[in-house]
Each structure stands twice: as structure tokens, then as C-alpha cells.
Amino acid sequence: MPPRSVDVIVLGAGIVGVSAALALQAHGRSVAIVDRLGEAGGETSFGNAGIVQSDAFLPYLFPRKLAVIVRAALNRDPRAHVRYRALPAIAPALWGYFRASTAGGKLETAKAMAALVGAAGDEHRKLAAAAGADDLLRPTGWIEVWRTADGEDEAMSEIEELRPYGVAPRLLDKAALVALEPDVSDVARGGVYFPEPLTTPDPGSLTAKYADFSIARGGWVEKGDAMSLEPAAAGWTVAAASGRLKARDAIIALGPWSDELLRALGLKLPFFVKRGYHMHYALKGDARMSRPVLDLEKGYVVAPMARGLRLTTGAEFARPGDPPSTAHLERLEPFAREMFPLGARLDPKPWLGRRPCLPDMRPVIGRFPGKAGLWLDFGHQHLGLTLGPISGRLLAEMMTNEPTVVDPAPFRAERFA
Ligand SMILES: Cc1cc2nc3c(=O)[nH]c(=O)nc-3n(C[C@H](O)[C@H](O)[C@H](O)COP(=O)(O)OP(=O)(O)OC[C@H]3O[C@@H](n4cnc5c(N)ncnc54)[C@H](O)[C@@H]3O)c2cc1C
């Protein structure tokens, strides 16, 4: 029977919560992770594209050009998909996202995120080595390919923007692309190879392996409902499967579900989700793929995973709880089939995930305003796999009054006050 009182309760066993737990244990804190699934890595952290994108210095912005917005709004641009019935409910969040997506906002977020993003790969390497999960991180890098001259121009301007951050990708003409990925078709006219980032063939297992390491260090993962969190004498308490757990500190790391608990506790943030799907495919014949490839102009990734080739979609704009739809995947699959060696579908239905977002595309890491002992670690948008471990380190340093690896100010919840 585990002890009923610990130093810290972590709510949420995705990559963000598990990483925070490990970072606190490294500071000598006893930790219990509570998740409604009773196991780690079962939700968003299970189904992503598996790129530890330690070169993602520039935030994903809402488009600013009217023609691009109109095309996307009419579902003519496959990079996004809009569920029209959700629009009245999500319009305020999209408006906030649009307003934050200025050139100045982009630079401010890039500056704030630079140290976090830059350290993300090393933080994973350290955790994976300690957790015995090295086999789940591969030094493959990733590729983005273009189909047309417009796509090439877009890629070139992105490279220019990344240069000040020390990102040095390799330009690939058709022959160089074929040398790296022989089974990507001629539809791809060229590409850019980002060699540094690590990738994982199984993000869910990587998260579970990190959780196993937390358990080996004396922690545990228990089934329970975070919505039962209540203040207690000198701390917080939550109802878990084996009874009430108590701790001096609690961390909300519920990914896309964080907002529900925040609102129940009186904190209203401009939170929204960008939903996304995945589907696995068998490889055609004896084809192979060695690393994730982004089809830049169509906005999806095909990544070689333990289960097969995983196609992940871009953003679907819908309410978090809207029923899944096959529409976005159906729009993308024909493009993917002409570019990649996709065989038969391997999943009975598409998997649905939700990227937890704030309009400035920065996570919230730090104190819950006005509530002693309550901490926040969520909103990692497109980069939660990447940023989980380094965010956990930052939060643990704040909670233990150590010097922090980066300035935490840009990540405070109060920035939206
Ligand atoms: C299609 C797609 C592709 C992506 N590709 C990448 C990528 O290549 N690289 C990258 O870095 N990021 C990627 N991301 C983003 C990344 O997956 C997320 O940012 C990250 O997984 C978020 O992790 P998390 O721990 O915050 O949330 P989650 O993994 O969702 O964990 C939250 C946990 O909270 C639990 N929970 C929810 N409600 C309750 C409750 N009431 N009580 C108890 N527990 C509860 C859930 O069960 C869950 O385990 C992608 C996302 C998507 C959707």
C-alpha cells in the first residue's frame, strides 16, 4: 500500500506530468502521479508525430493574410480543418490567437522559448539514459519536403528566420532526398533536412518508460479524478483509487483537460485546443522510411513508428469534446498516398488528440496565482513531447527555490491578466 501523504501530487500522467514528477524526484521530493486512466502516456502523449523538435524556435502562428485565412476557413487548405458548428464557441479563442500572431509576438515568443527549445533534446537524452529508454530515442532528424516553387520559397524563408537560432539544416535536391528517403515519390521536388532532432518510434511507450523510472525511484501512478482536488490543511488533497492522497504541493499537468480544473478553481485563461488525428499504415512492398517527413504544403507528417507509418494531421479547429470526424484525414490521405509508400490502413479508426494551446504559443509553467502550493505545467501546444522534460526541470527548480535553467517570467499565468 503506497503512503497516503507525499510531497507533491502531479495531476496528469502525460509526458509533461511524468517529466515534472521525475524532475522533483531528482530534487529529493516524494511524488505520486494521479491520472484518470491509471497509467501513463495514454492520451495526447501517445499519438503525436514523435519529433523531439529541438529546432522549433519559431511558434506556429495564425495566418495573417486574408487570402490564406479565407482558404482555410472554407476548408480549401488541407493544413487545417474547421468544424463549422464549433465556430461560435471557439471564435473568441481564435480571435485571441489571431491577435497574438503578429511579427512582434512571434519574436517575443521565439525569444522566450529559445532556451527551453534549445535544451529540450539534451534533457530527453539524460532522462532516456537514466530510464533505460535509449532505444526509444533515435538520432534521425526529420525532413520537410515541398511540391512546388511556392513551397520551396516558404521553406527558404523559414530557414532564414531560423538562422539566428543556430539551426543549420541541409538543403536537399531530389538526388539528396532520394539518398536519405528512397521511397518518397517524385511529387516531392526537394526538401530540407534537419539532422539534429531526436525522434521516437513510440511516444506512448517513451512516456510509460519515464513513468516506470519514476516508480523505480519510489513514486507511483494511481487512478483518480483530478477534478476532486481540494485544499487541505497545509496543502492539497485528491481522491485516488486507493483513497485520498495528500501533499503540500500539487501540479496541474492535465494537458488539454487542464482548463476544466483551472476554471473550477477560478482561473480563466484564453485556452483552446488544436485537435489532430493519426492513422497507421503498412509499408508498401519492401519500401522503407527512416525518419519523419513533413509535406510542407499539405501540412501533415508521415513518421515511421513501431506500429507502421503514422500519418499525423495538422490542426482541426473544434471544441475539445466534439465527436471525432474522419474528414481531415480523408482530405489528407490522397496527398499522402501520392507522396509516401502507404499500404493498407492498420487502425480501425483514426486516433484523436488535442494540442493544448494558449494564444501566444507558450506553455504556462509556474504558480497558480493566489493559491499557495498549487502549480501549473500545461499548454505545450505542438511541442509537448519536445518540451515535457525541460518544462519539468524548470518547474521543479521553481518549486525548490533553485536557480532556474531559463527565465520563468514569460511562462507565468499572470501574463493573461
Ligand atoms: C497529431 C499530433 C501530433 C503531434 N506531434 C508532436 C511532435 O512531433 N512533437 C512534439 O513535441 N509534440 C507533438 N504534439 C504535441 C504533444 O503531443 C502534446 O503537446 C503533449 O502530448 C501534451 O502532453 P501533456 O502531458 O500535457 O498532455 P497529455 O498527454 O494529454 O496528458 C494529460 C493527462 O491528463 C489525464 N487527465 C485528463 N483529465 C483528467 C482528470 N480529470 N483526472 C485525472 N487525469 C486526467 C489524461 O488521462 C492524460 O493522461 C502533437 C500533438 C498531436 C495531437
Can you describe what's shown?
The protein is α/β, with parallel strands linked by helices. It contains eleven helices and 21 strands. It has helices at residues 15-26, 44-47, 66-73, 87-100, 103-131, 149-162, 174-180, 203-216, 258-264, 327-339, 384-399; strands at 5-11, 31-35, 51-52, 80-82, 142-146, 170-172, 190-194, 198-199, 220-223, 230-232, 235-240, 243-252, 272-283, 293-295, 300-305, 308-312, 315-317, 342-345, 351-357, 364-367, 374-378. Strands 5, 6, 7, 13, 14, 15, 16, 18 and 19 form a nine-stranded mixed β-sheet that branches. Strands 1, 2, 9, 10, 11, 12, 20 and 21 form an eight-stranded mixed β-sheet that branches. The protein has a two-stranded antiparallel ribbon with strand order 3-8. α1 packs parallel to α8 and α5 crosses α11 (384-399). The longest helix has 29 residues, at 103-131. Bound molecules: flavin-adenine dinucleotide.
Global outline: globular
- Which residues form runs of ≥5 with pLDDT under 50? none
Structural class: alpha/beta
The end-to-end distance, rounded to whole angstroms, is: 43 Å
In DSSP terms (H or I, runs of 4 or more residues), the helix count works out at 11
Provide the β-strand percentage band. Answer: 15-25%
Biggest sheet details: 9 strands, mixed
Task: Look at the structure and give the mean pLDDT.
Answer: 96
Count of β-strands: 21
Cα radius of gyration in angstroms: 21 Å
In this entry the ligands are: flavin-adenine dinucleotide
